[in-house]
């Protein structure tokens, strides 16, 4: 099975490519950069260079590869690194080009959305959701260009699956952490620093396995899925954290102990996926970084 992965040279993208290649997917990594024309990919991995914001090039490369699946992971991944309008334009155009091209090719799709689509991560003033735990049906209320680009991306996924009948899973990851590099733990003494996503996180290996689950599960149409660790990274009851910061707790609150503010029940039910990594072991775990090329 041939799988085209955009953004596969990015930090989390490398883990996705490695996970799929290890599972015997034939992965074509499509990115704005290229590791080098003379460099050979590891087993089950090859590379193509493409500007995802140019529709003709994307359509051409998808037609050439003729993939069974497409994982769209290429994007400007957050606010604050470039102008907001560039974040929006890049992410929306790339998503439109990749998803429309994949849909026309009849390829099932997994696409990167974000917990930022809810609007709390980059809000001008922190606000409480309607209920805890937050699920995929909670209203999306972004007020920033990044979160809005992810909402538009999910709308594009709706359009493509209606028109082409392909299966699309939109993954809404929390703050992605890496083995032996859990930056979220550095903010434990700063309660306001984590309020935008209510102190949630996810291990990159769990996101990679969620992407694979999205490719392999049997469902129809377009479905969003949260990708979040089972617990918050503060090692404190979520109710206590919310009450301390906001001075109140939503009337509907069903999170036990140090559980996450987000629920992954939908992914468990439809994809048979659950997060398996936790800060208490992964933060000090030594795991080699993925190597996509051979020497």
UniProtKB/TrEMBL annotation:
InterPro entries: Epimerase_deHydtase, NAD(P)-bd_dom_sf. GO terms for molecular function: oxidoreductase activity. It comes from the Archaea. Keywords: NAD, Oxidoreductase. Residues 4-174 form the NAD-dependent epimerase/dehydratase domain. Belongs to the NAD(P)-dependent epimerase/dehydratase family. This is Nucleoside-diphosphate-sugar epimerase. It comes from Haladaptatus litoreus.
